[in-house]
Amino acid sequence: MSEKTEKIVYISTNGGENPEKATLPFVLANAALAMEVEAVVALQGPAVTLAKGDCLNHVFAAGLPPLKDLVKSFLEQGGRLMVCVPCIRERKIDEADLIEGSELMAAAKLTQEILSANATLVY
Fold first, then answer.
1. Full DSSP string of 17-78
2. Residue 107 has pLDDT above 80, yes or no
3. Residue 63: inside a domain, yes or no?
4. What single DSSP character describes residue 123?
5. Stretch 71-94: mean pLDDT, rounded?
């Protein structure tokens, strides 16, 4: 692997109300990690609910692996899951209730991730 790794950021704005759009960033992020590309998934807006407790156990998109399995694989492969602090506060989600492996972020931190990435996609 080269000294400078390629990096991609997926910004997810969909929670369990849209299972397909909530799942697709994790399908792509797992593929990126398998290709030795650094992958970051940033949850914003309704997507932050995915990082709460057992929410992942209830999100299934037709034709795709269960979201809980994709997130587990993503984190085990070294993917970074970032969660918007203002978004969880707005939804009264306590930081202690977030799944293990979540990183807290706000605008400046996400902007730094985007600026250091080769590409950014929004779902």
1. TSHHHHHHHHHHHHHHHHTT-EEEEEE-GGGGGGGBTTGGGG---TTS--HHHHHHHHHHTT
2. yes
3. yes
4. -
5. 97
Query: How far is it, in rounded angstroms, from Cα 36 to Cα 20?
Result: 25
Mean pLDDT calculated for residue range 10-37: 97
Q: How far apart, in whole angstroms, are the C-alpha atoms of residue 54 and residue 114?
A: 28
Q: What size, in residues, is the chain?
A: 123
Domain span at residue 74 reads: 7-122
With H, G, I as helix, E, B as strand and everything else as coil, classify residue 109.
helix
Pairwise CA distance, residues 94 & 89, whole Å: 7
**Is 2 a domain residue?**
no
Q: Give residue 2's pLDDT.
A: 46
- CB within 8 Å of 3: residues ≥ 6 apart: none
Residue among 78, 72, 76, 82 at smallest CA distance from 102: 82
CA dihedral 11, 17, 23, 24 (to 10 degrees): -60
